[in-house]
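Take a look at my tokenised protein here and describe the backbone shape.
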Amino acid sequence: MHSVRHMRLLGTVLDGIEAVEVTLEARLDEALRPSEPKIVGLASASVREGLLRARAALREQLAHELAHQPFGLLVNLSPADVPKGGRSLDLALTLAWAAVLRDIPAERLAGLVFLGEVGLEGDVRPVNGALAALLAATMAGRKGVVLPHGNLNEAAFARDIPVRGVRHVREVLAMLEGGFEALRVHEIPAAPERDAGGPDWGDVRGQLQAKRALEIAAAGGHNLLLEGPPGSGKTMLARRLPQLLPELALEESRAVAVIQSAALLHGNAQLGVRPFRAPHHTASMAGLVGGGQPLRPGEVSLAHGGVLFLDELPEFERRTLEALREPLEERVVHVVRATGVREFPADFICVAAMNPCPCGFAGLTPVRCRCTVHAAAQYRARISGPLLDRFDLRHFLRPPAPELLYEDGPHQRACEARTRVLEARQRMERRFGARSTNARVPDALIRRTVVREAGMRRLLATLMARHRLSARAMRRLERVALTIADLEGAEHVTEAHVLEALSYRLVEGIGSSPGQGSQA
């Protein structure tokens, strides 16, 4: 009965957002008692507990074989020097045990990858990182993947490999008796109709200059800082920015889905839908930029391809805010661990909102500010100059006039602004290449495009000296000026474009003492 003493099959574990293939070697070892299964190969506590879940799941299916098992089970996980955690190895451990007990021919398991959490009654539950496992199996040329039925929707993003979705261990055991048979993969979930059921761009009354700033941010992929008193519309505007962005291409949707799958958000990814993340100001550094144990992507990576909204910006911890410098500049996050460096993508548009002072009414009439000068200065000092420098656009909002809130006239629709954004992005792609935006191309390309004549060089140098702008600020100003020119369909950047871009950096009340701000 126990002629098959050794069995080998494949599973995966998640390392950040990447899947690592694991080879499981199982055998009945004379040195172990039947009641003492053993697992080696840098297995974490969650993986070791998977052996207990596997035995409980098999107790109903293979009660006779377990009762007459002569020796204990020994499982080796290879590569042995890679730490292994999570619940994705449960199904592979269960099948390895069953294969040893049932003499299942090894060739039936060859080339198949198994992943899934197993419950005590044998139910197979979804796991995080299924899409990364599917893509890794595809790259490795595996025969197919057996995964929980709850992860099948992710298989739609990896169409080049056969899959089989299962709900219970008994389905896998029956499948192994009859051979692997792939199921039809679900189609990628369709994107919901734009402007339907979500925030309405037409709800924003007045605030024309703020809408203009959002349009520029959407077109060029620029970061935006909104300041204003409570109720002036900062959050309302930020939540409507995704309406102006073009839909994600298939490859971009896949990249977003991989991150969401790794962060236990499987099933949330939809083709073309850009993520919108709005973490609370109490978020930890690991929660915002990634980390923790097990290692997982943070909010900046979950916002990849979409929008990260940081409301009440000064209320975030100073250390947490300073950790945003790298992703805002490099579009990636590097998380350093003893086992190496993990890189998480973090290409997003950052929109931040803040009040002008702790009470929120500095510089406004007839409402009087209750804050002392010292309290207002301390409040602003929570945001460092280098971080503030990374916001290409800044705008001070004032409450809209009462007559604007109740007027019945037509209002601008999101589709109109989105059309201008799409046309501007098409100009950028013709100039710099596919999926290029002015905020993301190298400085040298921007400089050659913007600074085309001596007059423009003199203007930029004068503005830099007069307003004491840093070199980074000037590079970002040039990018914004180019985006404004693209929105207007202009062939070249003019002085008017540069001065409008400058107006979004010299906003009173942001990074200085509260003042009048700019009228919306």
About this structure: The two ends are 82 Å apart (CA to CA). Residues 513-520 have pLDDT under 50 and may be disordered. The CA atoms of residues 150 and 250 lie 22 Å apart.
